[in-house]
Structure formats: structure tokens, C-alpha cells
Amino acid sequence: MNSQPNLQYTWFNSTAGQYLLAEEQALYDEAVFDLFGFNALQMGCLEMDLLRNSRIPNRYKSSEFDAPMPDFHVRCCDDFLPFADMSLDLLLLPHRLEFSERPHQTLREAERVMMPEGHLLISGFNPLSTWGATACINKLCSGNKAFPWNGKFIGLTRMKDWLALMGFEILLVEMCCHIPPFEQFAWHKRFAFMDKASEHYCAMLGGVYFIVAKKRVPGMMPIKPNWKKAPLGPALIARPTQSGPTQSEPVHKQP
After folding, report:
1. How much is the pTM?
2. Which of 77, 90, 193, 226 sits most deeply, having the most CB atoms within 10 A of its CB?
3. CA-based nearest residue to 180, from 123, 129, 126, 128
4. Residue ranges in 61-192 assigned as alpha helix (H)
5. CATH topology of domain 4-215
6. Domain extents for the chain?
7. DSSP letters along 87-113, please?
8. Are 125 and 155 in contact, with CB atoms under 8 Å apart?
């Protein structure tokens, strides 16, 4: 069995992991509440129930591995999703792209299975942060084996470019996890002030970025009725189209 899910599960129970879970759960809870549809899917990060606040009736979870938690519905590879075209209204990718072997293909699959005007929510580690610096140090010291530092962190600007190429419109970008990923609770508490200070002065240096995007389809333009306009205007009144006599004009017969 692949050791990745066990390492992931262990790290999420650490001080840094619990901090990340709390920060991201709050962002997802707020975002999914006002998104509607019939089918929603969370891919990976089963330690979090990111659809718990969603009002979409059909909510599913998928995993690439035999996860320690049994509460997932589908085991599948990110590269080829076992879902029909345009079948999902909401898709969540929490830290999936930086651990995907082919992140471009994962995004292409996401675009394929999503309904037009559907929403895609992504969270990823920011390489331009103390979390990104920690990843670089761990790769040098531990041979790129420790989760989550073994992932290939993708910058926010690059992620935006990829989404634009796939036809997604960015609706929201937020940053969280400004406290460095300390494993000791005492150090984490000592730097707790950074969460509020960084939001005002260096928000873009947060350890995690959160994106809400919408799938746009060229040629589709939602038409909204103009209720203020009169239901019948002069242009809609029927007029005779012939120059001969009509029913309103008497017909004079010749003797």
C-alpha cells in the first residue's frame, strides 16, 4: 500500500496540520454555502469535510489512495475522472494539483466534468511564503519524502494563468496560514499575531492560497428579462401589410 495517505494523515494531526485544517475549513465553509446545483465532489484531503456547509443535495468525496478514513465514495486517479462530461456543478481540489503527477491533465479533467457556469474551488501551498521556504529546506534535508513538503508547489500567478487557459473566470482569491508551520505549539502561539498583521501588510505571503473560479463557455450569454419595460409596445402592435381593403374598410361592389 502506498505510504502517502498514512504520512498525510499523520501530518494533519500535527500542530501545523491542525492549524491548516482550521484555516481552510473556514474558507470552504463560507464559499460553498451560496453555491447551488445538483452534484458536488471533493477530491482528496479527506481529513476535512469541505462540503459540510453546502446545500447541494448530492455530495461526494474521492481519493486516489486507500485512505485510512472510510468515508469516501470513489477511488480514482486525478488524470482520468470516472464522471460524464458536464456532470458536476461544484468541484473542490484541496491541495490536489501540487501532488498530481500531471496537474495540467487534472485541470483538463476538471474542466471536462464541470457544468457550464459551475464552480471550481482550489487551495494550494504558496511557494512565496514561509511554508514554501520550509518545503525547500525539507527537500534538501529529507530527500523530498516528508508530506506535505514533497509536493510541487505551484505559484498563484501560474495557477491563474492555467485557469484562464482552461476557460475559467477567477471570482475570488484569498490567502491564509500566515503563521510559519511550527510543529511546537508554544512557537505557534508565540507567532499568532502574524495572522492579523499579515492580512493588512503582506497578505499575499500567506502559506496557502484559496481560489474560487467559474467555468465560462464561449457563446453562452444568460439573458435577464427587463421587467421595467412595458409588456406591449408600439412595435409589437400588428399592422396590416397589404394595401387592399381590410375588414375595417367597407367594400363597395360595382353594379
Report:
1. 0.80
2. 90
3. 129
4. 103-113, 130-142, 156-165, 185-190
5. Rossmann fold (3.40.50)
6. 4-215
7. -EEEEEEET-GGG-S-HHHHHHHHHHH
8. no
